[in-house]
Amino acid sequence: MTDSFPDRGSTSFNRRDWLTASGLAASASVLSASLPDQLWSAEGDTTDLPPLNRFPRMVQEFFVDQVRTMEAQGDAARAALKTKEDAERYVKGIRAKIQQVFGPWPEKTPLNAKTTSTVERDTYRIENVIFESRPNFFVTANLYVPKNRKFPLPGVVGSCGHSANGKAIDAYQSFAQGLARQGYVVLLFDPIGQGERLQYVDENLKPRRGVSVSEHLYAGNQQFLVGDFFGAWRAWDGIRALDYLLTREEVDPKHVGITGNSGGGTMTTWLCGVEDRWTMAAPSCFVTTFRRNLENELPADTEQCPPRAIALGLDHADFLAAMAPKPVIILAKERDYFDVRGAKVAYERLKNLYTLLGKPENISFFVGPTEHGYSIENREAMYGWFNRATGIAEGQTEPKLTIEKDDTLRCTPHGQVAGIRSRSVFNFTQDKAIELGKQHKKRDVSALAEAITSTLKLPTRTGAPDYRILRPVAKREYPTAASTSYAIESEPGVFALVTKLSEQSHYSRPPKGKGPAILYVAHHSSDAELRNEPLIQELIKAEPNVPFFACDVRGIGESRPNTAGADQFLRPYGSDYFYASHSFMLDRPYVGQKTHDVLSVLDWLADNGYTDIHLAGLGWGSIPAALAGFLSKHVKRVTLKNNLTSYEAIAISEGYDWPVSSFIPGVLGKFDLPEVYRVLELKQLKQIEPRGAVQTAPA
């Protein structure tokens, strides 16, 4: 079983398919069961009407435009490099930017390493090791030590990709054994959420929230609220793995490398950028460009989406550039779903840089012939590259291997660090959330407004936005005889879709108002909710003569993306997650973009005479509604239903089901929703059935 995926050409592909295709059907069922149905299936309309979705590509093309713009700026900066001094300055700048994304790092605490058992083989031994990358946060690893060699020897840290059994999967055992037989000391460690390091287990140490991808998403998404990045946590394990490797007298610190495939290729790439002790590297089946991944609609794990990276001008190649001019080989696959065109671009960028630095021979590129995975072709390319860098004259042909059983490589008594009372990622997130909550101070409205505006990265608005009048769609069964739809352009290429209810048609332009109006911000779809949401009926009944408008912010309803595969929107690895993660990399939180949409609609209403707004929001829509209601002078009254009580409630709860698209990175270090609600009391705030960490209604 290898870290491989089915062909991405299938539009129905998702990680659930991968789990099944990889023989992890049990994990697939756990993944689907680990989150409530609300996140796995579209919330149904009670009618047979097909949903309105006139802008299904809008969000995708907006993000592509943003990423292309940043890539063009990066290309221009690289094209300006003409001398060795330019290249050295570029590398120094890249390193500083990477630290902005991944830092600050925690204090290095004692590893408290211990070998729990040893396995003797013909030309090497395997030590089963446990160490602490953070206090009481255990890492399980296998150390492969050659026999009958003159020490010290080169060392390699092996970073595992996605596999249920982590370090024990055959592809990763293979490269560890292959290197050991050629004279390398190899440390292969379990990633968080894999092998012996599951973070969410039941009393029998069985997974409660799936394994691998599902744990990465679940723990990593929650971390954003406290300003942590799961990729940095993963990378820190790799840094501490290197620390442990260098404590071994068998290891030559002048020759230490890092390699891994897929998710391990990700960590290899990131570790090249954050740790300067590596002397060689070989990332496999990951390196491409952010643009290619986005254009190809390829979702990536939380740890593969570094916050602010794209905004800072970073791309995959830049993390490898941080190592320049040390030896690096990019390993790709001809039939991978990671775009080989992007891998080639990454190589060409690095080739130019290495040439300016006087070491063009220290960067290489290899494309294996098969599908995604650390197959023998890529492993042998890695062996040859490391042997060249270290001077080991073993060639590059892989020696004969014997794959060990999982139990042979087990480090813990019962197969999970939870069984030896390791802390979980959630424990740390919870502690940090509580500590951040203690630091919140009561502040005046202007200070809170500044905190919200800066945290959401809200752009400047300049007057009333332009808009389109959409052609009517008949027989939608709305509460009134007629309706008109408008596309309000909140920024170039992005529209908030607004429906005005009326008793008579009015298509030429919006009728001018004078004073009051109701603006409803939808949970998932104004079109469906205008038919079946009781809150809308109550609002209309309470104020029957007040003009009523319903709004879909970007990414829901009329602009719900049809990307990242068929019917993937509400899945944990689907299109809603896809754009939220890109929002973080662009340093523009999705919540901020949606709040900007609501504010733009409020400006549009004011331009049409409606300056006394009763703003209502449901579910997901309640968050941008509350924030816009706080910031807009046009809002005089606010009603929220099924609104989130606080971000802290999610961060301190092991179980939650709010999507990451509703999260704001680092929000708990800046403000929380109860502060917003207190100010909204001045605008007659009414909260109806608010929700804590779990959205689903109580039984």
From TrEMBL:
Q: What SUPFAM superfamilies does its record include?
A: alpha/beta-Hydrolases (SSF53474)
Q: Where is the Acetyl xylan esterase domain?
A: 120-295
One Pfam family from the record:
AXE1
Is NAD one of the keywords? no
- From the Swiss-Prot or TrEMBL record, what is one GO molecular function term? hydrolase activity
Q: Which InterPro entries match?
A: AB_hydrolase_fold, AXE1_dom, FrsA_esterase, TAT_signal
- RNA-binding in keyword set: no
Q: What are the protein's UniProt keywords?
A: Hydrolase
Superkingdom assignment: Bacteria
Q: What is this protein called?
A: Alpha/beta hydrolase family protein
Q: What organism does the record attribute this protein to?
A: Anatilimnocola aggregata
Organism lineage: Bacteria, Pseudomonadati, Planctomycetota, Planctomycetia, Pirellulales
